[in-house]
Design brief:
single chain, alpha+beta, MutS, DNA mismatch repair protein, domain I, DNA polymerase, domain 1, Dna Ligase, domain 1, five-stranded mixed beta sheet, four-stranded antiparallel beta sheet, 12 strands, 22% strand, binds magnesium ion, UmuC, DNApol_IV, metal-binding
Length: 381
């Protein structure tokens, strides 16, 4: 198949994805020389119900990975060294890394403590290559933090992220525009952004296993099967990803909504949906390092009348339990007393944002926060 440009040359961007290698574990190995060369695992207690947040490459050789229970990790590698997370140390290293990235462009979008996208299109306008910038960034990170990062360079986020993963750890890989399609073709669809295990199963029932299979699928078929997401699949199979690099801005709220295929009448089922959304929001708040004081619910009735009810905590909250606690009360206030409710949409959101450490230090909950961070970090992968 001929190499094709998937985006017009004039609009081509230069995107770098920087991803620290085994970040939490690498910080521990840097700070405790006796851990170097050892299977080190940062996460929860293997005697309890904790999970692995990050493990060193030595531990990965035993089949240990993020999100696995710590107990299972210990059974795979009894000699592994288990460490409780030191979030302050990781945050400090993360700040150093993000500051280095900011020197090259203001267009830096952190995805978590240890990875970020950069749009260096402008920085490369006078002939400097994006790959030179990526090389320099990796060098600076190593000099300043003593840690290694992998980097991927390409013309959009999708490919830049795949590229950084390609030569991990301590690697650099470039996917130029004319190589994008060839790079993607043989990859299993599960490697693509937004394609989770359930989607992989559904695609495989359609005979779609690789990105090339996905590219050969009819646009209409994908849309019929997956709706709007089908259109996204159609585009990414062609190496098209127009998502901009969005520098972190102050978020005003984090929320979730669900529209139901059939109206719901049972308040208990409504509550279950609200609770599920609240847990998702909690996980997202932890990932982006925010907490909020106000919890709101939104209820849209079958006649499209929409109302919201809110509760404001004294302190910012982010834990699932705290988000969920006020839901029965809010739902009770939203539903009519006399008639049976018929609901087509429910939503939950958290606003009045604060960084969680600002409220956590007040309440001495730092340990708890670390505990939650470990769990959520595990769930993400
Ligand atoms: Mg990483």
């Amino acid at each position: 198949m001929p190499n094709l440009l998937t985006e017009p040359i004039a609009k081509l961007r230069k995107i770098i994805h920087v991803d620290m290698d085994a970040f939490f574990a690498a910080v521990e190995q840097r700070d405790h020389s006796e851990l170097q060369g050892q299977p080190a695992i940062v996460g929860g207690d293997p005697a309890g119900r904790g999970v692995v947040a990050t493990c060193s490459y030595e531990a990965r050789r035993f089949g240990i990975h993020s999100a696995m229970t710590a107990a299972r990790a210990r059974s795979l590698c009894p000699q592994a060294i288990f460490l409780r997370p030191r979030m302050e140390a990781y945050r400090k290293a993360s700040r150093q890394v993000m500051e280095i990235l900011q020197k090259y462009t203001p267009l830096v979008e952190p995805l978590s403590l240890d990875e970020a996208f950069l749009d260096v299109t402008v920085a490369t306008a006078d002939g400097i290559l994006a790959v030179q910038i990526a090389r320099e960034i990796r060098w600076c990170i190593q000099q300043e933090t003593g840690l290694t990062a992998s980097a991927g360079v390409s013309y959009n986020k999708l490919l830049a992220k795949l590229a950084s993963d390609w030569r991990k750890p301590n690697g650099l890989f470039v996917i130029p525009p004319e190589k994008g399609l060839d790079f993607l073709s043989p990859l299993p669809v599960g490697k693509l952004h937004g394609v989770g295990p359930a989607t992989v199963r559904k695609l495989s029932t359609l005979g779609i296993h690789t990105v090339l299979d996905l590219r050969n699928a009819e646009r209409e078929t994908l849309i019929a099967q997956f709706g709007k997401t089908g259109l996204w699949f159609y585009e990414i199979a062609r190496g098209i990803d127009k998502r901009p690099v969005q520098p972190s801005r102050q978020r005003k709220s984090v929320g979730a909504e669900r529209t139901f295929p059939q109206n719901i009448n049972d308040p208990q089922i409504m509550l279950t949906h609200l609770q599920e959304m609240a847990s998702q929001i909690s996980a997202r708040l932890i990932t982006i390092g925010l907490a909020g004081r106000t919890i709101s619910i939104k209820v849209r009735f079958s006649d499209f009348e929409t109302i919201t009810r809110a509760y404001t905590h004294v302190q910012a909250v982010w834990r699932k339990e705290d988000l969920i606690a006020c839901l029965p009360d809010l739902l009770g206030k939203a539903l009519p007393v006399e008639s049976q409710p018929s609901i087509r949409l429910l939503g939950v959101s958290v606003s009045g944002m604060l960084r969680p450490e600002e409220s956590a230090t007040n309440t001495g909950q730092m340990d708890l926060l670390e505990d939650i961070l470990v769990k959520s970090h595990g769930v993400r992968r």
